[in-house]
Amino acid sequence: MTTNSAPPPPPTTTSVLVTGATRGLGLEAAHRFAALGWTVWLGARDAERGDKAAADVAAAQPDADVRPLLLDVTDDASVAAAYDVLVASGTGLDVLVNNAGIAGTHAAPAEVVPADFLPVFGVNLLGPVRVTHAFLPLLRRSAAPRLVMVSSGMGSFAITGDPDRVESTVPGLVYPASKAALNMVTTMYAKALPDVRVVAVDPGYTATDLNGHSGPQSVAEGVEAIVTGAAADTLPGPFVGRDGALGW
User: Fold this and answer.
1) Considering the entire predicted model, what is its pTM?
2) Catalytic residue among 175, 189, 191, 205
């Protein structure tokens, strides 16, 4: 007897992977994407925290398809294993949101040493490159692939040079440099991947663990740029914030 070996039909629901999704902007983004009816892969480097975050989203959106995914953006093996899990699930991948990030040292620039850059660049720059490289083959199978890099106004020469912006008053060295590098990587991906919509987003100064909850914006406000970058049909530019296009 022969059996029908035709491949299964493609998924009909948008599928998104958010890295660093157990708290702050990543968790809020997961909530927002779940509310859109998307399949949400909630990236977490700790399985217990990932399960808890997914349960939190599911409790708020009982009909949502929310799936925790063990994923450490600094580890090749972890990223490869996460890719295999997602491929085997059959959901496909339409949107990749590289959100995971750390602040690193708050030392004055004169006190910063080269070693201070390594962990921050490892997460904020090499993490997005590692995850993008791994998941790009799956992402490109989507009819409308979207790659979202969660950057910062602190990585923008235009914004940090504007005396009317609060970012111009913070003389940081390591974190701003990591986000400036991520912005350049974003522009290069955009040039090299014409079949993928690539955008950098600036959530703005948002109250999260990253800054000791010192930001004036709530996570609900800060996540707007991420949701726009991922879900809007059209974008005002390649680098966007809550209020529109931003300068590099």
Assistant:
1) 0.92
2) 175
